[in-house]
Specification:
The chain is mainly beta and 410 residues long. It has 4 domains: 2-96, Immunoglobulin-like; 107-186, Sandwich (Immunoglobulin-like), CATH 2.60.40; 192-273, Immunoglobulin-like (Sandwich); 283-373, Immunoglobulins (Immunoglobulin-like, Sandwich). Helices cover 9% and strands 52% of the residues. The chain contains 3 helices and 30 strands. It has helices at residues 2-18, 385-389, 396-409; strands spanning 21-25, 30-33, 42-48, 54-56, 59-62, 71-79, 84-106, 110-112, 116-126, 130-135, 140-145, 150-157, 164-172, 175-191, 200-201, 209-218, 222-227, 230-231, 235-237, 240-245, 254-261, 266-273, 283-290, 295-300, 310-317, 320-328, 337-341, 349-358, 361-362, 370-373. Strands 8, 10, 11, 13, 14, 16, 19 and 20 form an 8-stranded mixed sheet that branches. Strands 1, 3, 4, 6, 7, 9 and 12 form a 7-stranded mixed sheet that branches. Strands 15-22-21-17-18 form a 5-stranded mixed sheet, with no helix packed on it. Strand 25 (310-317) and strand 26 (320-328) form a beta hairpin. It is rod-shaped and about 205 Å long. The relative contact order is 0.07.
């Protein structure tokens, strides 16, 4: 029997040596047993290190334990014959309890961009909880504290993209606590960096063009669009605004401006529809006055896209094309151009077209084709009947010769 008691004491000592920490969840009962030599001269008692707890006997028993009972508890054996006391066992009681958010003191949840957001939270838990603040839309971690409890301060400078719903979590192995709150950031409107915006476009005449603005900022902006300082129509839908140009005209090229404004401020952004590239094809080619050796051609020039253009007159005969004259416009006029083709052959059929070009290249197509015929050379006119009956034509010499002879005879 004594051997069994000795073995029991040895086991408890080994437990204490290997793991002096005795975890117990708050609200549960604690029971720890230690044993001495059990002689008539000895007795055993428990005592806490802060001396707030004393219990006689080998059993340390605390029912419905609270976190205030966490302490180091020592088991002593006293020899009454000598009043000698020795510590035979020690248990470090660790009371665990769930993680919880006790308080969240937001200073303010509506801020202007570049202000500092701050809040003070109070959390508890044992084991000490992990605390995280996460931005909901992108799962970005705004704050993290590991193995901490009590009063924690959270602060960071806010930008437009920090306007969001946030999740505050507090967790340990016993519980997961959380709460939500919103941060509103007042920002001057600006382009959304997540969207692609085309500020420069190079369309052709007749093409469809859409100018778009994808905005960010709060409150949502108001939009005003201008073309060369003239307000133009646009379509708005919250954080999107656009201008539709269904079919590009020459006057549609140039500068466009959008002004975005809200209660915080305004920003202005520039767009440019650039006239660039080869000219459009000439149209409405016509043949006017036609003689045996010449013809007057006229046509409407296509848009030159800001570069001086040249027209080459192309003749087609027997399936072969031949370049004839060239005409260069010194200005950007779209008025009808007139040019006379010379050195043509009489009684001949001609097919004519116009090729347009500038320093950026040639138009994608030739003009419409015009066909005409030069007239034949007319035959010489026959003599009149009176002239035909005379043996020879009368001349002034023949008429005056008899008169001169008569005068000499007088």
């Amino acid at each position: 029997m004594e051997r069994a008691l000795v073995l029991l004491i040895t086991w408890f000592v080994l437990v204490a040596a290997q793991n002096t920490k005795q975890p117990v969840r708050e609200g549960n009962d604690l029971f720890v047993f230690c044993d001495g030599e059990r002689s008539p001269q000895t007795s055993v008692y428990w005592e806490s290190s802060n001396l707030q707890y004393h219990q006689d006997g080998p059993s340390l028993t605390i029912n419905h334990i609270t976190r205030n009972s966490a302490d180091d508890y020592e088991c002593f054996e006293i020899d009454h014959s000598t009043n000698a006391t020795k510590k035979i066992f020690e248990a470090s009681v660790d009371v665990t309890y769930p993680a919880n958010i006790l308080e969240n003191k937001l200073v303010k949840d509506t801020l202007v961009e570049n202000e500092t957001f701050s809040t003070e939270i109070i959390v508890e838990g044992n084991p000490f909880p992990d605390v995280k603040l996460v931005q909901m839309s992108n799962s970005a971690l705004a704050y993290q504290s590991v193995n901490n409890q009590g009063k924690l301060s959270i602060s960071f400078v806010v930008h437009c993209n920090n306007m969001d719903r946030y999740l505050l979590t507090c967790s340990n192995e016993l519980n997961y606590d959380h709460l939500y709150f919103n941060i509103t950031v007042l920002c001057v409107p600006r382009p959304d960096p997540k969207k692609a915006i085309s500020y420069i476009q190079k369309p052709r005449v007749g093409q469809y063009v859409k100018l778009e603005m994808f905005a960010t900022g709060y409150p949502p902006p108001n939009y005003t669009w201008y073309h060369n300082d003239t307000v133009i129509e646009h379509v708005d839908s919250g954080y999107t605004s656009f201008v539709n140009l269904q079919s590009m005209k020459v006057d549609d090229f140039g500068n466009y401006t959008v002004t975005m404004s809200n209660s915080v401020g305004e920003n202005i952004y520039q767009y440019w529809i650039e006239a660039d590239g080869p000219p459009d094809s000439a149209t409405d080619l016509q043949a006017g006055t036609i003689t045996t050796t010449s013809a007057i051609l006229s046509w409407l020039p296509g848009f030159d896209y800001g570069n001086k253009q040249t027209f080459t007159i192309i003749m087609t005969q027997n399936g072969e094309k031949q370049e004839l004259d060239t005409v260069t416009l010194e200005d950007h006029s779209l008025d009808r151009v007139t040019h006379t083709i010379s050195n043509l052959n009489p009684a001949t059929t001609y097919d004519m077209e116009i090729k347009s070009s500038n320093r950026k290249g040639e138009a994608s197509n030739l003009s419409n084709k015009v066909q005409f015929n030069t007239p034949a050379v007319p035959p010489p006119e026959p003599p009149s009947p009176s002239e035909a009956s005379m043996p020879y034509p009368l001349s002034l010499r023949n008429l005056l010769l008899p008169v001169l002879i008569a005068l000499l005879e007088i």
